[in-house]
Amino acid sequence: MTQEFREAMEKLKAQYAEALQDMPLPAGVPEYVQELIAKNDQETLLLMLKLSWVFGAQAGQAGQVQVQTTRIPTVQA
Predict the structure, then answer these.
(1) Which band of pLDDT confidence, cut at 50, 70 and 90, is reported for residue 58?
(2) 37 touches 45 (CB < 8 A)
(3) DSSP letter string over 7-63?
(4) What are phi and psi of 41, to 5 degrees?
(5) Nearby residues of 48 by Cβ (< 8 Å), 6 or more positions away
(6) Out of the domains of life, which is the source (predicted)?
(7) 3-class DSSP state of 68
(8) Domain segments of the chain: what residues?
């Protein structure tokens, strides 16, 4: 991991940690992650991160496309 990536993650953590603290996760997810850590199941943890990254990127792209294609109604005289 590059130093730039680490710094970006720390910045995001500082910026959003409080807002996301109360965001609910499906029941059992924190326990499942703890289980994966205890088993040192890096493969599954990385898969979860990759999926989150892809889904986030897709949501961001979809939002950008929607903004670019939204027509602003005009008033005709």
Answers:
(1) confident
(2) yes
(3) HHHHHHHHHHHHHHHT----TTHHHHHHHHHHTT-HHHHHHHHHHHHHHHHHHHHHH
(4) -85, 75
(5) 33
(6) Bacteria
(7) helix
(8) 3-66
Helix (H, G, I), strand (E, B) or coil at 67: helix
Asked if 33 and 45 count as a contact pair (C-beta separation under 8 A), the reply is: yes
Q: 36 and 45 in contact (C-beta within 8 Å)?
A: yes
| pLDDT on residue 72 | 66
Q: Please give the single-letter amino acid code of residue 45.
A: L
| Identity of residue 44 | T
More reliable by pLDDT, 9 or 44: 44
Largest CA distance in the chain: 69
Q: Residue 49: which of 57, 59, 38 has the closest Cα?
A: 57
